Task: structure prediction
Amino acid sequence: MLRIDPESPDPPFAQLRAQILAGVGDGSLAPGDRLPTVRALAGELGLAANTVARAYRELEADGVLEGRGRSGTFVRSTVTAGRAASAAASGRAAAERYAETVRSLGLDPQEALALVRRALDA
Result:
């Protein structure tokens, strides 16, 4: 399910973070789902363990994931704070996908922001 694009301008931890956020946002990762261990996912993706750990830590800080010690890392249960964090996380994931698209199209960042402002005002 998770993959790293070596051609992407985004660092691997950001790619991983965005993919997990997208999974939470689209429901393919549900509350209570257990994620692979840091070492297992790092090995599977060919990354350093610290890279995966950073993505997990940032998602824990955002309230999307929950570390349970030796039990593993899980998608946080849906609670009021969790819903707000999930909405924010989904928004961040959408913004990251938009930024990636804008870069691939060669649009100027100011032009891209103007497009977003017009869309939000519509």
Summary: DSSP finds five helices and three strands in the chain. The chain has a mean pLDDT of 86. Residues 75 and 101 are 27 Å apart (CA to CA).
